[in-house]
Amino acid sequence: MRYMLMLHADEAAGKSIAPEDMARFMGQMYAYQQALEKAAAFVSSNALVGSSEASVVRVQGNEVSVLDGPYADVREQFGGYFIIDVADMDEANKWAARCPAASWGTVEVRRIRDASEYAG
């Protein structure tokens, strides 16, 4: 089963991290990805631009509204993800706990629905 590990962190705190510390953190993330690859669990991963470059689009009737970011008044923002392929939620949670991002933010774990779940 595929799971998305959504990495949430405080963008403001991230901006204050010294470049050498950020390089060390990114090295930890790369090592984590290599561990996922070695376990044949890695599917994909990407980092996202900051919430100040995001927008939210809503359509109500014929009215389209676009709100430029940051659009949520929360401490932690969604900043990147890993998609993994593992046996079950327990294994996905174990991988999430190993993710370095869990030490400076949170990692939300969600199963990705299989296309067959939409058949009806």
TrEMBL record:
Source taxon at top rank: Bacteria
Pfam families assigned: YCII
InterPro entries registered for this protein in UniProt: Dimeric_a/b-barrel, YCII
Domain YCII-related, first and last residues per copy: 1-114
PANTHER family, sorted: BLL7171 PROTEIN, BLL7171 PROTEIN-RELATED
Similarity section: Belongs to the YciI family.
Descriptive protein name: YCII-related domain-containing protein
